[in-house]
Every structure is written in structure tokens, then in C-alpha cells.
Write a structure and sequence with these properties.
- The chain has about 120 residues and is α/β, with parallel strands linked by helices.
- The protein has a single domain, classed as 3-Layer(aba) Sandwich (Rossmann fold), CATH 3.40.50.2300.
- The chain contains five helices and five strands.
- A five-stranded parallel sheet has the order 2-1-3-4-5, with helices on both faces.
- Helix 2 packs parallel to helix 3.
- The model has no long low-confidence stretch (mean pLDDT about 90).
Length: about 120
């Protein structure tokens, strides 16, 4: 059974690219387009990993991560935050929210895949 990734991305073209790449690596990919949907899908889909954009509609990714990590049923799921917000203090803020790792946009696809595999134990 393939490992499942919850991809939280509001940009359809970015979501399409990442979904295609990870499905090509034989992962099951579930997509959420906002933070509120991400919290719901983390609970219902039980992914092995979450790739979380930070700038999202409805609920930002850091708040979605905070809620996912506060829930006993989903707190164990690793969350890799991906953001173009590279201001001073961003990494510390995301780690305090519960992100396990942080990547800046733009990031090479190989880097994203390698980081994901690290958290998936591959």
C-alpha cells in the first residue's frame, strides 16, 4: 500500500506539479486548497506526511499546522512547511506552530522529494 501525502496548496499549477511528481514516485496524494480543509483531511485521510503551504485562504498554514498538532489523532503526522515568506523569524514561527521542517519557495523538486522521503523513512 503506497504512503499517503496530504498536499496543501492553493495554487492549482503548483498543486498539479507536486501531485504529478509524487504520484510518479508511487505515493498516494490527497490535495487540500486551504488550511481549514487541510485540518479536516488530516483527520479523515490519515496521511503519512503533510506538505503545507503557509499563505492559504480561509486559514493560514501555520494555524492549520497548530490545529493538526494539537489533535491527538493527527499530532504524529510530520508537517513540512513550504513558504515564500522568508522574513527574519519565519522559520522559528513555523517551528513553534509545529512544523517539523521548513522549505523556502522556490525550492527544487528534488529537494522537496528528498525532504519528504526523509520524513517518510525512505
Amino acid at each position: 500500500m503506497p504512503k499517503k501525502i496530504l498536499l496543501v496548496e492553493d495554487d492549482d499549477s503548483h498543486a498539479y506539479i507536486l501531485r504529478t511528481v509524487f504520484e510518479g514516485e508511487q505515493y498516494e496524494v490527497v490535495v487540500a486548497s486551504d488550511g481549514k480543509e487541510a485540518v479536516k483531511k488530516a483527520l479523515s485521510e490519515k496521511p503519512d506526511l503533510i506538505l503545507m503551504d503557509i499563505r492559504l485562504p480561509v486559514m493560514p498554514g501555520d494555524e492549520a499546522t497548530r490545529q493538526i498538532k494539537a489533535n491527538p489523532e493527527t499530532k504524529h503526522i510530520p508537517v513540512i512547511c513550504i513558504t515564500a515568506a522568508t522574513m527574519k523569524g519565519t522559520e522559528e514561527k513555523l517551528l513553534r506552530a509545529g512544523c517539523d521542517s521548513y522549505l523556502e519557495k522556490p525550492t527544487e523538486l528534488d529537494t522537496i522529494i528528498a525532504e519528504a522521503k526523509k520524513y517518510l523513512g525512505e
